[in-house]
Amino acid sequence: MLSSSIIESALDQIKPASHLYVAYSGGVDSHVLLHLCASITGLSGKITAVYVHHGLQAEADAWATHCSRTAKTLGVGFKAQYVNAVAMPGESPEEAARNARYDALKALVGANDILLVAQHREDQLETVLLQLFRGSGLRGLSGMPERMAFGRGVILRPLLNISKQAIRRYAETHKLNWVDDPSNLYNDYDRNFLRNAIVPLIKQRWPACDKTVARSARHCADAQAVISVIADDLFHAVFNEDDKTLSISQLQRLNKPRQQLVIRHWFQMLGLKMPAQGFVERILSQIVAARAGSDPVLSGQGYNIRRYRDRLYCLKQAPKQALQDINWPAGQTSLKMVDDQHWLCLPSSTGILRERWLTANVVVRFRRGGEKMLLPGRKGRHALKNLFQEEGVPPWEREVMPLVYLDGKLAAVGDKWISAEFYSEKTDACIRLCRQKQE
Asked: What sections of 199-314 are H helices per DSSP?
């Protein structure tokens, strides 16, 4: 029988929360979850119901009002979050709404906070079936975890092993008043099609399929946990922490299944969606296996996979920009350049004399080919091409590296080199360029 002890038991497995947020749409599932939480005396004053207003339904304003009234009746806090759920190119309406919803909820959840959501056993069944039809591996077939890190806190699904029937029975017994979203009846969406047309047929033949599929999901999750430990060991033997790249030579020492495991672990570490099997295979065949010195590019998820020397890079795609000269205004300590780079002019004990910098006409240019410079302590003029190769600067970084000219003479190349003609070691009287790190 469904009771508040389900919530208390789930909360007991997590350290005490500073605050509980309940994702509350006004539907029967989230209403039951909120009602259960509100009935626990020890949680008094620690609960806020959160309604995410997607702006996609004409009834959304009325639902927000309903949710606010219900929260007040139950004696819990209430907050409405307004989001833009319009789908981006390549994004389904379901995915857009889900992403917008979770982004809004993440922004609320602080350290030691818990977000409770009302997903139940039938939701888990639908999730596993959808992942199966998409050809997912163990991670996808593990379905939704009961709890996991979320924002700065934790997301908890205390009803994940509870049937939809039990939730409906609880709502009717307690005479709860909920809203029904008419879009749940539209079979245009994959999940709705499964819920309305497919799962009822399956249950006619296998009535307990929600239980058995949930059990299979837990088996997959257990297996994935074991594999993750193995993958973590393999990954850290290949991973370069300083630039988030993979060592190609180390990766090639592994057999193909382990290589694929490492690539997926890499995507997870970078916060990207799991790549399709075909994409992983193309990374290995087109990029990793390419001859040394070549520069193949593989694009996906708004990122480029590239190689340089012994390293495999995952780089965020940036729109092509015309590399035009930029004047650095006198007295300005920072300048925005291509790819939203910000470069700073910082005090230094060695570098370009500040007085010379302030009185010169400072212009930032980009490579046109044939540039040379004389370096402090080294003989002869050196071609930038050779210096970049010597320093191991990847080709894509060379293209956008700022070349700083003072009164028409090349004085500095980003934060890499300063020309001997402009270099000084006058303590507390110099400046150096520094690229501002993007958070």
From this structure: 199-205, 209-238, 248-252, 256-269, 277-282
CA 438-398-437 angle, to 5 degrees, is: 10
What are the phi and psi torsion angles at 240 (to 5°)?
A: -105, 110
Residue 422 to residues 218, 375, 428: CA-CA distances in angstroms? Answer: 65, 10, 16
> Each residue of 286-312: pLDDT tens digit?
999 999 888 899 998 889 999 999 999
What's the pLDDT tens digit per position in 229-274?
999 999 999 999 989 999 999 999 999 999 999 999 999 999 888 8
Sheet with 113-116, edge to edge strand ranges:
77-82, 47-53, 19-23, 113-116, 153-156, 147-150
In CATH, what number does 5-205 get? 3.40.50.620
Question: Which stretch of DSSP H or E encloses residue 253?
Answer: none
Backbone torsion region of residue 244, taken as left when φ is above 0, otherwise alpha when ψ lies between -120 and 50, otherwise beta: left
- Domain residue extents for the chain: 5-205, 228-316, 326-435
CA distance 350 to 427: 7
CA distance 170 to 356: 78
What pTM does this model have? 0.75
The DSSP H or E segment spanning 15 is: none
Multiple choice CATH, 228-316, 1.10.357.10, 1.10.10.10, 3.40.190.10, 1.20.59.20: 1.20.59.20
Which candidate, 118, 158, 164, 123, places its Cα nearest to that of 5? Answer: 158
Residue 154's SS3 state is: strand
